[in-house]
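seq as requested:
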Amino acid sequence: MSTTTLFKHFPVKEALVFDEDADQEDGLLAAVRERPEGQSFPAAPREHALGTRLAAPDSEARFTAFTNLVNSTPALRGCRQAMWLRHTSALAKVIAEESGLAVNDPACTALAHLALEATRAVHTHEDPGQAITRAFHLLDNGWSTLARA
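struct tokens:
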């Protein structure tokens, strides 16, 4: 394949590494929309993040190798953060729709941003699964306080 053909499908080099961005957003939004009855909004992206990492038998090793590649490359780290946080408004909209809050409610936007940031921030922890659970515990407690107000 020629370089010209390659870059018709992948506009920047980093896109070769992050080729599942649209699928990741779809999965994240579906996790909130299709969450089990009684599951909180913060729990849905937490379970999605944990499930994504554990979906295949070799996913832990593949996840670690991918994370090491991204973390060791400044351009890939920046691209990952920008791509992942780009889902904030879509996630905030789904949270608002599902909770009955206004689409522009700052609590929905904050929860979406913090949920996305929490899943991104744990990549450097020795046990990312435990770190995801801990970060989302904080988000879940904050959201439940808001829901009671």
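The radius of gyration is 16 Å.
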